[in-house]
Amino acid sequence: MSNHSKGILMISITAVLWGILAVVLKYALQRFSGNTIIWFRFTFSFVFLAAYYSINRPQFFEIFKIPPILGIVAGLAVGGNYFGFTRGVDLTSPSNTQILIQIAPLLVVVAGVYYFKERLTILQKTGFFIAAAGFVLFYRDQLHNLVISSQQYTTGNLWIIFGAVAWAIFAVCQKYLVRFWAPQQTNLLIYLVAAMMFSPLAVFHEFQGLTYTDWLTLIFLGANTLVAYGTLGEAFKLLPANQVSAIIVLNPLITLLVAGVLSFQKLPWLSSESITLPGYAGALLLLAGVGLVVKKS
Questions:
Q1: How many CA atoms lie within 13 A of 243 on its CB side?
Q2: Cα 169 vs. chain centroid, distance in angstroms?
Q3: Alpha-carbon torsion angle 222, 87, 26, 137, nearest 10
Q4: What SS3 class is residue 209?
Q5: Residue 57 and residue 152: Cα distance in Å, rounded?
Q6: What DSSP character marks residue 1?
Q7: Coil, helix or strand at residue 249
Q8: Contacts of 261 (CB under 8 A, 6+ apart)
Q9: DSSP per residue, 96-108
Q10: CA 262, 267, 273: angle at the middle one, nearest 5?
């Protein structure tokens, strides 16, 4: 298998894992509080990453001698991202959350313009306008076809936007950190900071009397963080960044597909999607616009 094919495989794994994440998270929130889920995901990822590198690359732990401030900020930011995303899924729907969280890469590009003095191409500027039009169209469709209260929908969207801003902060910090540290080395610090951040908020008695399905759900959510970010890192090594970003943008379509199929099962924990044709058109415009912005050429 060529490096290009391996790269496509790696980023496809990332897209699929992130695509089904919101749906599984919606199910998990029927059994666990959001803070407990977030704590478990970061703790699971840190423990497995620490165990692996303690054997293979113990020098990676040098980052804990004098932890970089930006590494701590990145850990707090990614914790904020997980919290905002989880609240968005809880208050709205998996598809709505996955579509609106695409604001995050747009914010990263804006940060690149202001802080890294990057220039927007004509294609990127066009992408911003297309994404904005798609956002307005999708949002209006959702407001007119809500299966929840408008107040709950608005609150959920504010949390999603909060999560997008937090992810953009995390991404900017990572862009600085990888100049001096290996990506997985910074992940060790970031996962630990985020796990410690949610330790006082987790409800540990929720782990009592768990069923086999409960444990599988938690383990999947924990492994999702570990594997998705791992395959993403490998994809960046094997493919141009614009190809990686373009494929990642497709993950909300996977969420829409999975949620749409499951909605026919009349599952009590998953309400039917309230997206109509204009809403789907808005979602596609938003994703297309984001794709143009992150493509950069």
A1: 14
A2: 13
A3: -120
A4: coil
A5: 47
A6: -
A7: coil
A8: none
A9: HHHHHTTHHHHHH
A10: 55
Reduced to 3 states (helix: H, G, I; strand: E, B; else coil), residue 252 is: helix
What's the rounded Cα separation, in Å, for the pair 249 and 271? 24
CB 248 within 8 A of CB 11: yes
Instruction: Assign 111 to helix, strand or coil.
Output: helix
> Residue 205: what residue type?
H
Q: What residue spans define the domains of the chain?
A: 3-295
Low-confidence ranges of the chain (pLDDT < 50): none
Distance CA 134, CA 99 (A): 10
Give me the pLDDT at residue 296, please: 61
- Its sign, for the CA torsion 205, 209, 211, 212, is positive
Question: Nearest 5°: CA angle at 141, between 265 and 153?
Answer: 75
Any idea of the CA torsion for 32, 162, 75, 21, to the nearest 10 degrees? 50
φ/ψ region of 104 (left if φ > 0, alpha if ψ in -120 to 50, else beta) reads alpha
Cα 122 to Cα 275: distance, rounded to the nearest angstrom: 31
CB atoms within 10 A of CB 34: 21
Taking the CA atoms of the chain, what radius of gyration do you get in angstroms?
Answer: 19
What gap in Å lies between CA 109 and CA 119, rounded to an integer? 9
What are the structure tokens assigned to 257, written together?
């597909």
Alpha-helical runs (H) found in the chain: 3-28, 34-56, 69-91, 94-100, 103-115, 122-144, 150-177, 183-198, 212-238, 241-248, 251-263, 277-295
Q: Pick the closest to residue 79 from 247, 249, 198 (CA basis).
A: 198
* Contact criterion met (CB below 8 Å) for 46 and 188: yes
- Predicted confidence at residue 106, as pLDDT, reads 83
Amino acid at the residue 86: T
Q: What is the DSSP string of 255-270?
A: HHHHHHHHHTTT-TTS
pLDDT reported for residue 78: 93
Half-sphere exposure of 59 (CA within 13 A, CB side): 2
